[in-house]
Structure to design on (214 residues):
């Protein structure tokens, strides 16, 4: 079972999410919170696998709540579910420790998939969020060696990472095993000198890997 905490200041949103998520046999909603302080306390009390956190809540805001949840409950993966993809929200949330960032117009089935993805240890960004992140990090990214030393297959995997696909879907897309994809991802990060998939995705978009068709 994936134990989920829902943090949103709108009761109708929390109830709707709870009702929908509990239709799935592998998901259990273990708590709700109406603000950041409640979210931190509930995370410490219930030890959820995944915390769905809105960024705009009264009192302690979502970003500070994410930071405290990750500090106090490091095993909990935080998935942002919000209406905002502006520069004051995306990068600060990721830097605070969020493993995923979705907008509230996400399709229900995609939300469930995102919960499973971040629970499995992967990162996930909504396409619009990935685009905004690229724009934000453009001026901050340090120079990197060109990716000419990546193999054609590694460039294919890198392009799929930039599209926000998790390893399982990359494996399906490329017709290889998930273990093979994990190996390619590890090699890509090592060769490019990155520590996570988000950095690799930003690099891929900025350097045109998506459009090469290798």
């Amino acid at each position: 079972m994936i134990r989920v905490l829902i943090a949103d200041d709108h009761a109708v949103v929390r109830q709707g999410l709870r009702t929908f998520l509990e239709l799935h046999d592998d998901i259990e909603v273990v708590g709700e919170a109406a603000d950041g302080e409640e979210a931190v306390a509930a995370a410490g009390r219930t030890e959820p696998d995944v915390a769905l956190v809105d960024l705009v809540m009264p009192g302690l805001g979502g970003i500070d709540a994410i930071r405290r949840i990750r500090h106090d409950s490091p095993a909990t993966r935080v998935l942002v579910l919000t209406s905002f993809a502006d520069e004051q929200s995306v990068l600060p949330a990721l830097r605070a420790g969020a493993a995923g960032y979705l907008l509230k117009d996400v399709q229900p089935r995609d939300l469930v998939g995102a919960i499973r993805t971040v629970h499995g240890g992967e990162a996930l960004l909504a396409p619009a969020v990935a685009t905004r992140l690229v724009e934000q990090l453009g001026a901050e990214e340090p120079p990197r060696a060109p990716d000419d030393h990546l193999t054609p297959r590694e460039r294919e995997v890198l392009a799929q990472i930039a599209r926000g696909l998790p390893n399982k879907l990359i494996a399906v897309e490329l017709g290889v095993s998930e273990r093979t994809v994990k190996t390619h991802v590890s090699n890509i990060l090592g060769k490019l000198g990155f520590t996570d998939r988000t950095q690799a995705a930003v690099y891929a978009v900025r350097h045109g890997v998506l459009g090469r068709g290798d």
